[in-house]
Amino acid sequence: MATAPVPDPARTVNVGRRVFLGMVGLGALGVAFGAAVQGKVGQALGSGVGSLLPGGDQFTIYSVSGSFPTVAPHAYRLHVTGLVDRPLTLTLADLQALPATRLVRTFQCVTGWRVPGVHWEGARLRDVLDAAGVQPAGRALLFESFDRVDTESLTLAQARLDDVLVAYRMLDAPLTVEHGGPVRLYVAPMFGYKSLKWLSAIRVVETVVPGYWEENGYPVNGWLDGSTAPTVPPGS
Ligand SMILES: Nc1nc2c(c(=O)[nH]1)N[C@H]1C(S)=C(S)[C@@H](COP(=O)(O)O)O[C@H]1N2
Ligand SMILES: [Mo]
Fold it and tell me: How far is the centre of ligand 1, averaged over its atoms, from the C-alpha of 81 (Å)?
């Protein structure tokens, strides 16, 4: 299957003044991932459409649902449920009241495009989990999006890493709708698909439930270094 030329996996769709990419040809993306983990990032499929966005940032905008859910910051609620002692419904202000972590990292999509020096800010996912109190049976997390299509997963150990954020700022500004605002997940040590946009719910569950992209061929453990063997980095 890897012998066929890799077709452009994305098509651009105009929505008023906005531009987004609806994802098609996920099988082709699987091929692209194989190339990416072999370090052939020169085969980047990034289209440069990101430069058409307001603000002119270098990201390619994805939405597997083909739409951008709009949630006003004051109306935003994050539900933390499942195997927890205290189910939570958090506002944006609640998240901002937790200790803030600021990171500057290179953002990398498995299809090859990358954006260096991206500023992120948010609460540590670990602090959100501790506020809810994860029960002993809870070993993994399931993340849901307001788009009602994309989902993601992490093991509890991955979720507790220092650089896994419930992010409310990106590119040194409040998260825009295109980038998943008001709140998205930012899993800094993994490829971009793990950073679920328009985060609506975190469910603590017993075992990992592969998310949307994983069901379509991406590794559940999307470490940026391409390692697939460890499910948790040493020391965590
Ligand atoms: N809800 C949602 N989150 C998502 C996606 C998506 O399509 N829907 N795409 C993922 C992928 S593959 C990447 S590379 C990043 C891209 O982030 P951006 O759209 O802010 O550029 O978002 C990730 N999170
Ligand atoms: Mo991606």
Answer: 23
Ligand 2 center to residue 151 CA distance, Å? 13
Mean pLDDT for the stretch of residues 96-100? 98
Q: Taking 70 as the threshold, does the pLDDT of residue 2 lie above it?
A: no
CA distance 191 to 111: 10
For ligand 1, whether the C-beta of 147 sits within 6 Å is yes
Q: 11-215 belongs to which CATH class?
A: alpha beta
- Structure token pair of residue 23: 């994802």
High-pLDDT (> 90) share of the chain, %: 70
Atom of ligand 1 nearest to the CA of 59: 21
Mean pLDDT, rounded, of the chain: 80
Our answer on whether the CB atom of 9 is closer than 6 Å to any ligand 1 atom is no
List the one residue out of 220, 223, 226, 144 whose CA is nearest residue 187. 223
